[in-house]
Every structure is written in structure tokens, then in C-alpha cells.
Amino acid sequence: MKTKRNSIFILMLGMMFLLANCATLNINLTPKKASAWMNNIYAAQYDEYLTWFDVIGYDKTTNKPIYKLKANVPDKQKEILKVKKAIFVELEPLLKDYSSYAATGIKTPLIDQVIARAVKLVNQLVEMEGGK
Length: 132
Known about the structure:
Elements: H1 2-25, H2 31-50, E1 53-58, E2 65-69, H3 75-104, H4 111-129
Antiparallel strand pairs: 1-2
Helix pairs in contact: 1-2, 1-4, 2-3, 2-4, 3-4
């Protein structure tokens, strides 16, 4: 488990460096690369988020895991997890929209707002990583 956490930490540091460079240098990624980049950050952050929970069973209709917060999680971490959950809920459909645009090249009227909001939320996730 420590190896996985260390790998995630190293991945996040690299992504934070890339994120900082993209934000400050205005590096233009292709839509496909930007979509992959944001989805990878989302997946890594979500994996880290789930380390704070135990699987207590599975939903009978969807077969999805049911999670419970682990015992002895510090109050500060509980607050961080609460904020992250809200970000994940908002970010998931934005990433789906952006991934669809990246795959098809079809630009919907709101795609620029979708991209801007998705980037802002991804930035929030990365910045929160340092607040563990």
C-alpha cells in the first residue's frame, strides 16, 4: 500500500509541475492530450481519495462498492474529503463533455466554459494534495 501511495505522490508532484508550467507558460496541449492529462489527474486524485474509505459491501442492483469513512480520520482531513467529493461530482460530467469534444472535434457552444471550469477544478484538486 505504501508503494502505491508513494507512486501516487510522485505522479501528483509531476502533474503539479506540469500544471504549473501549463498555467504559467501557456503551453498549448492538443485537446486529446489535455483531456488525457485532466482525466489522469482525476483518476489519481480519486484513487487517493478512496484510500480514506473502507468497502463495506456492494449494492445489490448496481454491484458498485459501498464505502465507509475509515475510523480515526482527522477532522481536517474529513473537511478536505468533503470538498474533494464536491469537486469530483462537479468535475466528472465536465470531463466527459471535454473528452467527447477531444475525441470528435465537434465544438459545442459551451465547450470553452466547460474547459475553463474543468481546468479550475483540476487545479483545486492538485492544490489540495499538498494539504494532506
